[in-house]
Amino acid sequence: MPRDGAMIFGDLIGKLDVLRVECPKCGRRGQFKLPVAQYGRNEKLFTFIDEIAADCPRKERPSDPCAVQCPDLPKGR
Predict the structure, then answer these.
(1) Residue 54 sits in which domain range?
(2) Per residue in 56-77, is it b (16+ CB within 10 Å) or e — as a string?
(3) Count of domains for the chain
(4) Is the pLDDT of residue 77 over 60?
(5) Smallest Cα–Cα separation from 69: which of 26, 21, 19, 18?
(6) Is the model's pLDDT at 76 over the cut of 70?
(7) pLDDT: which is higher, 19 or 1
(8) Which of 20, 40, 49, 56 could cysteine-pair with 66, CB 3.0–4.6 Å?
């Protein structure tokens, strides 16, 4: 799978054990054990984030979309 500059789960192995997810707009919060076994080392992180936010009511609001993020991701990528 082409990487296209995206962060993949393999980038997080050894850096994070738990992936926190939050949306400052709707208040959604959660934490997940790094799902490498489920997604694989080479899967792009935004695939996981899109699945987590799939049921967000803001997902379909172009003027005020969902802002789900992972605040603990390493900076500089």
Answers:
(1) 1-77
(2) bebeeeeeeebebebeebeeee
(3) 1
(4) no
(5) 21
(6) no
(7) 19
(8) 56
The model's pLDDT over 37-64, given as tens digits with 9 standing for 90+, comes to: 899 999 999 888 888 888 888 877 778 8
Q: Per the structure block, which two tokens stand in for 17?
A: 């054990």
CA atoms within 13 A of residue 17's CA, in its CB half-sphere? 0
Phi then psi for residue 22, to 5 deg, are -150, 155
Provide the residue type at 53 as one letter.
A
- Whole-angstrom Cα distance, residue 62 to residue 55? 15
CA 63 distance to own-chain centroid = 21
The two tokens of residue 76 are 């500089």
Question: What pLDDT, on a 0 to 100 scale, did the predictor assign at position 55?
Answer: 85
